[in-house]
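Please produce the structure of this protein holding adenosine-5'-diphosphate.
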Amino acid sequence: MTIDQIWNAVLGELELSISKANFTTWFRNTAIGSYQNGEVTIYVPNTFTKAWFEKKFHSNILHTLENVTNEPVKRILYKVENVRNVVLRIEPVQDTEFTPSNIQEVSTVYPSSQQSFGLNPKYHFGAFIVGKGNELAHAACQAAANNPGVSYNPLFIYGGVGLGKTHLLQAVGHAILGKDTNKKVLYVTCEAFTNDFIRSVRTGKAKEFKDRYRTVDALLIDDIQFITGKEGTQEEFFHTFNALHQFNKQVVLTSDRPPKAIPALESRLQSRFEWGLTVDVSSPDYETRVAILRAKCQEKNCSFFSNEMLQQIATLVQSNIRELEGALNKIIAYHELKNTRPTVDTIRSLLSSVESVSFRKSVTPKQVILTVSKFYDLAIEEILGKSREKRLALPRQIIMFIMREELKSSYPAIGQEIGGRDHTTAMHAYSKILAEIENDLKLKQDLEMIRQRLYVQSV
Ligand code: ADP
Ligand code: MG
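Below is the modeled complex.
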């Protein structure tokens, strides 16, 4: 095996073990430099990736290398080098040895004078709990805040509702301002951007609009997926983006889905969105949920929750962080009103009515059909119709899967709902999706997002 073949084999293995977004983000521009007597050099495109490899992927890379070569690996050196230059053997930018971690924490002090930038003072890095589902997005946001316009431009964060996208986005703004109050940071929702643009056209104030958006140091746009189908706004955003990017001004975007999955998005915009770094946030694991609850209790100054109670809440509320907070608030409010202390039992009975009961009982098969059709941007008639086109078949199977899994509907009932199909079709769909989510990360993420939309509607 040549060393390039070794690295390709390693990449092949790694691709199977991490999410697609992570893989392309981190491994796209890497190469192997040398491999000798168990000493390996891996080229990475920048210091941020280097730090991340050392901190997060080191043991994974090491073991995979050992597996592929069947030889022990003694040491791995990560070198920052523009891989496109590797062939020319241009001098590396930096050459330092392995250090366990050099991603720095940014300290954030919120200066009260900056409220006019549209930032919520609560959403700073200090109040953000880092866990498995969001550590990558968190690190990327810190990098963008530390070196605006340099590290990753644009930074594109996507994931389901209530998982901390807005919080992270605003934290970037706070951190940039925290370091330099003269910086101009603009946070807007996509809706506000759109309305602003439309108003500027109507009132003949295009120049003011340009001045406002193209002169900032950092532009933070929340929920950019809502730009879908709005051609004029897309065009304007395209020019705004180019103007900012050209002068190394930081752009950070959030969305409920990756750029490729935003329907009716001009391809030149999609490609711009993917220029920098695309990272996802996913549902918090149990430990993170407990840590978040603990932090929120501290924030609210309420000390009457035992560990067991917090664990109970974290077990009962799994979907997202907004719901977790909502559940905590509900418990606090209930006991304040009753003037009693919470117990594990009162918590359980309060939350069982929030979570499973309300979800299972209030979500109808029609809602599932509607949510999935909307998610894939398809008409309901198409979904329920006879066509077997692939673009329709998968969403249709997903609907059947969710009806079975979440609503516990019978197969004949599911078949009936989905355009009068046979119960064997529903059975087949269920087992097919169940098997596919094991290996198909994108499908798994899609399902997670769809579930979350259903949760939000039903609460
Ligand atoms: P999204 O924009 O992804 O829908 P938000 O950023 O609005 O989600 O987060 C929902 C709520 O959960 C906010 O109150 C936010 O402060 C809180 N939250 C989300 N993630 C975290 C986290 N990792 N640590 C602490 N609070 C969080
Ligand atoms: Mg949000």
